[in-house]
Amino acid sequence: MLTCDYPVPPDRYNDRVEEHLRLTGFYHVSQIGVVQCQKALVNALIERWHPDTHTFYLLIGECAVTLEDVALILGLPTDGLPITRMTMSSFEALEAEYLLQFGVTPRKSDCRGSCIKLTWLRDLKENLELTDEISIQRYVSIGQYSWGAACLAHLYRALYRASRFNCKEIDGPLTLLLGWAWIRLPNLSPLSREPRSFPLANRWRNWERGDRQYRYLNLAHFRKAFDELQEGQFVWVAYAVDRVDPNITPAEIYMQSVVWSATVLLVSFECIEWHATDRFRR
């Protein structure tokens, strides 16, 4: 069975930065608490994943996580510029870019090839102070990018890797995957603790405190459920007004709905995946 990397609690931040955080597009996702992983369900979904089509194969048809799910489950922006830039192959170029962006540079020991170690970035986050409008606007400008598309691309890539016979673990935005499964397959979800929360992932924040039995359901249970799945047990129109109160969803989320059913490439640097909504659009 594959193991899951567990999420960490949401970052704490001073209320004074909320306005700027909203402009970056990351305010809503920053409000998501810890959503405990259900490893057996994740494994059962991986077994149904087809990398060639980017869809799950169920008895009732093909289905997949879409940009609509990203927007409503995580609250990330789904319309905007693709996340890509020039690749830097030398340490000197990387050093110059970080000096421009952050005013400090990593040491060679903080790098692996052309990549920066996460430990250095975490230390930078803890110690970096935005003391002037120029440095603040440098971060606010990231709101022009489609972080939701990048998130979905990484989920598709994680599912692809996990579906290979020699893979033993999965990473990626598993809160998105679990939220999608629990919304689309309510018979397979734990008890919702906060049904009127946004982002919708918060419906299952700390679910294990009120539904301990669900935590111990095994892979055989979910395999059997998928094998016996009936048409009426999968929710195709998951965000209709009778299921999600439109008053809890911010207006800026719905303003980007024009791209939710688009058949397009999802781009995050070298991670490029296909948003194949044409295969299961209803």
UniProtKB/TrEMBL annotation:
GO biological process, one term: meristem maintenance
Top-level taxonomic group: Eukaryota
UniProt domain Aminotransferase-like plant mobile: residue ranges: 25-126, 142-281
InterPro entries in the record: AminoTfrase-like_pln_mobile, MAIN-like
Protein name: Aminotransferase-like plant mobile domain-containing protein
